[in-house]
Amino acid sequence: MIRATDIVIGYSALRQAQGQVKPVGVLRPFDRLTAAQAQGLGRTVGEHVEPPAVAGPLSFSYTDGECVMLRGRNGSGKTTLMKTLAGLLPPISGSFETGGKAILVPTRIPKVRGFTVEEFVRTGTLSEYGAFRRLDEYSKKAIDDAIAMMELGDLAAKDISRVSDGEFQKACIAAALTRKANVLMLDEPTAFLDVENRVMVLQTLQRLAHETGATVIFSTHDIHDGALFSDSVLAL
Predict the structure, then answer these.
(1) Contact at 8 Å (CB) between 7 and 95?
(2) Burial of 210 by CB count in 10 Å (0-12 exposed, 13-18 middle, 19+ buried)?
(3) What's the whole-model pTM score?
């Protein structure tokens, strides 16, 4: 579930200088503020200094298990909106709630040789358990479940440099699934993919939403294919 009320989004160098939010460039892929921390941060700037808005006010509500296509021209605020909903940027004004974890899934990670698909999926647990802490049974099951959900079992032992771009996108999603988030967001996950891999990724996102109950939001310029595999459309 995700719900926003009159949310206005934008970047603010002033807030970063005041230490109210880290610059996005220094955040690890899965760092986030809680929704409660992000809500209303935009109002802490003095009355006479307002940052430029990228988009808004926006109001929307999507239920558990819904797959949502986010569309809009370049510069319309798609990436900024997802970073705001993930807690990486504060809203300028308005509020939102996600009912739990909301994660922006990295979609432009290089395929570095030397990691198997399973090892890559395990990186999703590092932000909570650390790189050197032994995984407990719950975490191991979360990894196994994510690999099964993304239908990566036959590729688990394969080096990530040897899988297709579409299969690697599925591995990125699997890594996020290990954190049991109830809102997953992906910024142009089908960019630079061929037709076969593009359709495979979009089908996977809709199936993921329907089978896990997570709310999935993805941005795309492929309006036709995106509409075929989404339940709702959010236009900016």
Answers:
(1) yes
(2) middle
(3) 0.79
Mean pLDDT of the region 212-220? 95
β-bridge mates for residue 60, sequence order = 4
Identify any residues that bridge with 233 across adjacent strands, giving them in sequence order.
Answer: 69
Distance CA 142, CA 135 (A): 10
Phi-psi region of 70 (alpha: psi -120 to 50; beta: other; left: phi over 0): beta
pLDDT at residue 51, as a whole number: 58
Distance of alpha carbon 168 from alpha carbon 165, whole angstroms:
5
d(CA 224, CA 165): 21
Q: Tell me which of 31-35, 108-112, 141-145, 191-195 is least confident.
A: 31-35
- Render pLDDT for 102-143 as a digit per residue (tens, 0 to 9): 999 887 788 889 999 999 998 887 765 555 566 678 788 889
Q: How many alpha carbons fall within 13 Å on the CB side of residue 101?
A: 16
How many Cβ atoms from other residues are within 10 Å of residue 25's Cβ? 5
